[in-house]
Amino acid sequence: MSVRELVVLGTASQVPTRHRNHNGYLLRWDGEGILFDPGEGTQRQMLRAGVAAHDLNRICVTHFHGDHSLGLAGVIQRINLDQVPHEVTVHYPLSGERFFDRLRYATAYRETVALTQVPVSADGVLDARPSYTLDARKLSHPVESYGYRLTEPDGRRMLPERLAAHGLKGPDVGRLQREGSVDGVTLDDVSEIRRGQRFAFVMDTRLCDGVHALAEGADMLVIESTFLDEDERLAVDHGHLTAGQAARVAVEAGVRHLVLTHFSQRYTEPDEFERQARAAGFAGELTVAHDLLRVPLPKRR
How confident is the model at residue 1 (pLDDT cuts 50, 70, 90)? Predict the structure, then answer.
């Protein structure tokens, strides 16, 4: 059975705390595992969360600040130590390639795995496959940063009452799906569009066009909310979002499930992030993330 869920490995921003590891987020998408922003300590958090190196098919780095990338060295070496049998693709800003190379070869080890580097240099599609399209959008941060978005292709939902009304059943249904029509009955007559799921990942950024483009229509939006609203000036100065700003983005974009994360160490009460997000008008499903949390993607509409 296919599984689509977010496994939260870490939720701290620049400074980890006793209860928050540096960033790390694994998206399980059917048979694939996509690791976002492996900060320091990610390899150990994977162990605690029951995530193996063999689960990783792709790594997406938004930018090269330490809390989003220092874990790369350990994760890459673990992929090689465990001799992961499949290709692992890594995306990161092209402008930070020197940082990626330093992390990949931070110490001596034996390379056993085909690690494919596909850096990002502009907005656009990074990969398109039957189960999803992965694209990137530039964000606004002191160093170059990109957010990522997975979009599942739309499908078809067969409607039993319409099939029955047209006398279609058994092999005829399969033939209709393959050929598009049977005895003058078309797919449009007996089915409706099933909207594909959409997942968006937005880390360190100010408000910008890229944030809104990534969030638009997302079933799940994982987004930084480093600061509370009363510290908005700090957020703007350092290239971050507040809880209220993140929530308003979600409201405008029609997000179904909002996941807030990447919290400054100055705050100890997570409930205030939820309160401010609700005060900003977000009425959908809301999660204030904590380490080792598992969050299932919403069911298809």
Answer: very low
